[in-house]
Amino acid sequence: MLKIENLNQYYKQSHTLRDINLECKKGRCTCIMGRNGVGKTTLSKVIMGLLGTQSGKIIFKGKDITKLPPSDRASIAIGYVPQGREIFSSLTVKENIQIGILGNRNKIKKAPQIIYKLFPVLKEMQNRKGGDLSGGQQQQLAIARALCLEPEFLILDEPGEGIQPNIVRQIGDVIDYLTKEKQITVLLIEQKLPFARRHGDDFYILDRGSVTANGEIKDLSDEIIKQYLSV
Ligand SMILES: Nc1ncnc2c1ncn2[C@@H]1O[C@H](COP(=O)(O)OP(=O)(O)OP(=O)(O)O)[C@@H](O)[C@H]1O
Ligand SMILES: [Mg+2]
Whose CA is nearest to atom 31 of ligand 1? Predict the structure, then answer.
């Protein structure tokens, strides 16, 4: 579904991503793991085209999208839920969702009903301002907005960060539903090992901008965890 080949990225002099090779397979949840500041968010921004790259390729469904502007990535069905959510706080829930619909490549007029099935709270709160929602509800709104694109590929950057446990569990159920029932491919950036173990299929561990280990989550050994993840 998505392949990254020999990718390098620099912030000015600082070499942030080093020779990244990675593959996300269709209908699977691939977890990008690693400690703070190792380059996880940078990698997601590069995939979204929000940051340029100095070398390497990003291939989506066999097409080279390395140079495709971010606005065109929604039209090729890549959804993105950034770290910290970035919903519009002064707009209502409904308006935030309408913005998601605007990016839909199939030109749908109404929100896909599935978002209210997955997140019933958003229906109840549709007239509330985004900024008046709890952190967890904002995260649900950000995911719902991304799902309005009807993505085939969805990037979630630490969706459970700073959120109450019951909502984190619901988000986990949504990830399972998307991958297992809908065959949507998910790239999950995640630092919490139990969540990655529960919902992930494959993993890549980043350390100082390089992939230091990868494989199927079921083979993630205690040794690797001790070395590269803070638990
Ligand atoms: N806009 C920027 N300009 C310069 N350096 C940056 C910029 N954004 C991030 N960095 C640096 O790049 C490195 C990787 O940052 P990044 O945000 O990708 O890490 P991360 O793995 O997502 O961390 P976290 O787990 O805290 O979210 C860090 O050293 C960070 O300070
Ligand atoms: Mg980050």
Answer: 37
